[in-house]
Design a protein that fits this description.
Helix content is 31%, strand content 32%. It is built from 5 helices and 21 strands. The two termini are 69 Å apart.
Length: 404
């Protein structure tokens, strides 16, 4: 109670002194902040600039595709049989006509031997008949000559001569038929087809024997092998999968909204997912005339003029297709443009030692760069987009063209 009375009893002058002592530090703090802000405004910041330059820029469409084998051949047997030998493995390259596998050919070889024996027997029989017919014809000609001599002597009648002539004619006709049967070139008339049938049986047996040996239809690489010696195979079963030799192609399926930008002949750069640091050139060879309604995609194929050795069929690849290109235009690094993909792109430029924000109009966006259509001139200095407008700057040229 006594303390309260004493406090109330303080003179007015003392209370003013206390208030001034409390306010003075706050005033000094505010003044210090103001001085710091003012100093910050006038303090310059070092910034790396890039010059607006003319150059080439390309916009690319990034899609995923696969290595497409030029043609595939799925090899099987045409006859039922047991596999005797398989001569290829996955990854092997084979030449046209190279033996891939062989079936047990004992039954087919036996059938061929039997057909050949039948042909030999038929030909021998035909030759025997022809030989006999030749002897008969020779004797008939001799009889005819004798009959003519006897007729001249008056020993026989005209009727006897006619009989001899008729016998000689029949013998000649039979000789022609017999010789036709025995012709080695197989040109016997259809009515005399015994040897022709025998030769056809031999040809059929040879064809059956050939079916036991399966050869490569063209130069190719073996992609898959699904057969081993001792397997029983039947027609229709795929034994070997081959990628036939030919030009390497890539196939990809971009979305249909990109169709207008995809042109035949467009350049591309691709890399296999298994070898991401290695790239190779490609070119759009064809664009499908139809859209896949289920997926909403369009098939494109790309030719690879110089395919690297590590490419394999069905390998996954990343493809950058060049869909637009301007060879001489103003270009800036993409990271120097604010809102580059938005409605109001802008940049920060250096003007009279200060940072100035400026609206620009952009065009193509490439890999890390952007085309400037309006708002900048060639040679102007563009600062990092992080520099505040109005800031005093000390500039130096960026060594790598990027932000600092």
């Amino acid at each position: 109670m006594l303390d309260q009375i004493s406090s109330r009893a303080l003179p007015v002058t003392s209370r003013r002194r206390v208030t001034r002592r409390a306010v003075l530090p706050a005033v000094l703090a505010v003044a210090a902040i103001g001085i710091a802000v003012t100093a910050a405004r006038f303090r310059s910041t070092e910034a790396a600039f890039v010059l607006v330059r003319r150059g080439a820029i390309a916009r690319t469409l990034v899609i995923t595709g696969r290595v497409r084998a030029p043609a595939r051949a799925r090899i099987g047997a045409s006859v039922t049989g047991t596999v005797r030998e398989v001569r290829v493995r996955e990854g092997a390259h084979v030449a046209r006509g190279a033996l891939l596998l062989a079936l047990d050919d004992a039954p087919a070889a036996a059938a061929l031997a039997q057909a050949r024996a039948a042909l030999t027997s038929t030909e021998a029989r035909a030759r025997s008949i022809a030989d006999q017919a030749a002897l008969t014809a020779i004797q008939a000609e001799r009889d005819l000559a004798r009959a003519r001599a006897l007729l001249a002597q008056g020993a026989i009648s005209e009727r006897d001569l006619e009989v001899a002539e008729q016998a000689a004619a029949v013998a000649r006709s039979e000789l022609d038929v017999a010789q036709a049967r025995a012709r080695p070139d197989g040109t016997a008339p259809p009515a005399l087809a015994e040897i022709a049938r025998a030769r056809a049986a031999v040809a059929g047996a040879q064809a059956q024997l050939a079916l036991t040996r399966i050869s490569a239809p063209a130069g190719a690489t073996v992609l898959a092998r699904d057969v081993e010696p001792g397997d029983l195979v039947v027609p229709g079963r795929v034994l070997l999968d081959l990628a036939l030799d030919g030009a390497t192609e890539l196939v990809a399926y971009p979305r249909e909204e990109n169709l207008a930008e995809l042109q035949r002949g467009a350049r591309a750069v691709a890399s296999a997912d298994a070898f991401p640091t290695r790239t190779f050139a490609a070119r759009v060879a064809s664009v499908a005339p139809v859209i896949d309604p289920g997926q909403g995609t369009v098939e494109i194929r790309l030719a690879v003029p110089d395919p690297p050795s590590y490419l394999r069929a069905d390998m996954t690849v990343s493809i950058n297709v060049e869909v637009a290109r301007h060879d001489t235009t103003l270009v800036l690094p993409l990271d120097r443009v604010g809102d580059a993909s938005g409605a109001t792109p802008w940049v920060v430029v250096e003007r009279d030692g200060r940072a100035e924000r400026r609206s620009v109009r952009v065009g193509l966006q490439g890999d890390g760069s952007v085309e400037i259509l309006a708002g900048l001139r060639e040679g102007e200095r563009v600062l990092p987009a992080t520099i505040a407008p109005g800031k005093r700057v000390r500039t130096r040229e960026a060594s790598d063209g990027g932000a600092r």
